[in-house]
Known about the structure:
By secondary structure, this protein is mostly helical. Helices cover 63% and strands 0% of the residues.
Amino acid sequence: MGILDELSRLSSAEDFFVHLDVPYDPAVVRVARLHIMRRMGQYLRGSDVDGELLTGEEADLRALCRSHLEQAYQDFVASSPIAERLFKVHRDAVAPKAPEAKPFVPLAALGEVKVP
């Protein structure tokens, strides 16, 4: 069984850290587990674009997964999930809002105005 198959069978972020032998602070993982795993996935997709996941040896793939998990973890040791804005809800929270349209009433709609 390959490393990617092994990882697909894991059920928690902590399992990934243990399986790939990456040291971690449980407090950081407790707060940012989904963000860390999503960032690791982004890094792996970037490697897939470079063809590393398809052409690499098993030991190289394991080292690549380990380094991506370490990198993703360090992103959230140095920052926070809200600052990193990986999820749409966080990006939308700081997106500039379109100005509210002000109602327009043409003068012609007011009827004739008689000046005394």
